[in-house]
């Protein structure tokens, strides 16, 4: 991958891990540079994701930082190789903004995706008609490419052995489905069909759910492949999205996810709720 095409989501993840390892080891950037017999800027560029790292240099740094966990070392070395991976969205150019490419990378690299939505349905569970309505509201000039990208994303659900989706959908999102009566019914039926897949778990959060008085934004927790899997959080906002990966941030969202899971209807009760909605549609 050319130097000018970086940083990428994967190079930033690797750089962030190496920066945390160096800091935990009590070493300076200059000390790391001395170990690799290179200049200070090279280490800084690696840690900010602006350049990749050779496997031999990565091994030297991991030894320097005292990393003894063999599986963790394997995971970081695999990530270092995947920095150069070319994905189907890599050459999309200006059609896809950087935050969308980051999201696609996280989703592609995950073994488990946990999504909480209170206004719209999760993208992996939308029908094409629903997608077009939602995307046209904010990206009227890019509807077709963004719809095609979202349909492409749904291929993850076919990888039943290596990808799992867990979704909590707040009731208002189910009552704000745009389109004709037929399109609304089709979307709810689609949710019901997808909920029967072995790697898809859908829970409906009812209005009378017993929850603390709080305001939770929509969020997604990505459990990235590896042993143990690394969790990062994605927050959507009007103009894109933001990734949270700091160890002090992520636990707040995993705790909130557990609270939402406990308060939501069970998967079986959620299916009954969806069937009742189909009758009303």
TrEMBL record:
Q: Kindly list the GO molecular function terms attached to this UniProt entry.
A: DNA binding
Protein name, UniProt field: XRE family transcriptional regulator
A Pfam family of this chain? DUF5753
Q: Which domain of life is it from?
A: Bacteria
PROSITE patterns given for it?
HTH_CROC1 (PS50943)
Boundaries of every HTH cro/C1-type domain copy: 18-72
